[in-house]
What does this fold into?
Amino acid sequence: MKRVVARFFVTDEGAEPVKDWLKSLDKADRHRVGADIATVEFGWPVGMPTCRPIREGVREVRSTIKDGNVEARTYFGIDGGVMLLLHGEEGKDGQQDAIKLAVKRWKEHLERSKRLRKIEKRKKK
It folds into this structure.
């Protein structure tokens, strides 16, 4: 049984960046990344070498793709029982920018959640 359920972050415009990134990978790499995400879903909490915290609530799932030649990272945050997939990146060149973007998306998610909780609270009154 899954301990957390993976969901895709959705931008204000309705895009799902991690889903789009996964679709851009070839089938074998997509399956590898998916299997590593599933490892986190079923085994949460998971540590190294599969998963580690980065900063400000953002974590990464590490995957080896392209026949073992490239490290891919899927950045996510945990919100209750949800593993929110924030950003995906191949290689190390853009890693710092990828982390900044994942942190930005995580903060956006937390703000949205906070607003929704306030609305729900008002409805119950």
Remarks:
- The radius of gyration is 15 Å.
- The mean pLDDT is 94.
- The chain is about 45% helix and 30% strand.
